[in-house]
Write a structure and sequence with these properties.
This protein has 169 residues and is mainly α. The protein has one domain. It contains six helices and two strands. A hairpin with a 5-residue loop joins strand 1 and strand 2. Helix 3 packs antiparallel against helix 4. It is elongated, with a radius of gyration of 27 Å. It starts with 7 loop residues before the first helix and ends in a 12-residue tail after the last helix.
Length: 169
């Protein structure tokens, strides 16, 4: 499997950034600092999902203004799937039985189709945001530059500045 492409920020943190390799296609994202309000079209179930996932994305500094509409669609599909599942629990399957009690006709409820479509769409959106195990592997983690300890700072200041304490003659 090929290595994932590093972002410009990751290259700068690791010290491998070069000006001649900065592409015109690199987009700088500005993560949102405050949690946005859920869209009006979401009900209680959708709003709960909205709050949960915006918090997750904001914590990882991945929540961007341009993604809010897509995140709203994801939450709406979760909402639709959950509502359809609740209705399906009530047992709305229609069966026709013959005199011996054998089923000769069973109707698939339309809610099952709605549930399946909403679940499929929700999974597609979930993979776009890294909410599935496989898609999470494709999101590069923001790597923090390691900070030097006090001892490392002191050792770096000794001698000729190379960080070596002893010189070999």
């Amino acid at each position: 499997m090929p290595n994932l492409k590093k972002t410009q920020e990751e290259k700068e943190l690791t010290g491998t950034a070069r000006k001649d390799r900065v592409g015109a296609d690199s987009v700088q994202i500005n993560p949102l600092e405050t949690l946005p309000e859920p869209p009006a079209y979401l009900n209680k179930t959708g709003r709960k999902a909205w709050k949960k996932y915006t918090k997750v994305l904001q914590t990882e500094q991945l929540l961007v203004e341009t993604d809010l509409d897509s995140l709203g669609l994801y939450c709406m599909h979760l909402q639709i799937a959950e509502e359809a599942a609740e209705e399906l629990k009530k047992g709305v399957v229609r069966e026709c039985r013959d005199e011996d009690g054998r089923i000769y006709y069973a109707e698939t409820p339309p809610l099952l189709k709605i549930y399946n479509e909403a679940s499929t769409q929700a999974m597609k959106w979930a993979s776009q945001f890294g909410f599935t195990p496989v898609s999470r592997k494709n999101i590069p983690a923001v790597k923090k530059k390691p900070t030097e300890s006090k001892l490392q700072q002191l050792m770096g200041k000794r001698g000729d500045g190379s960080g070596t304490v002893f010189k070999i003659a």
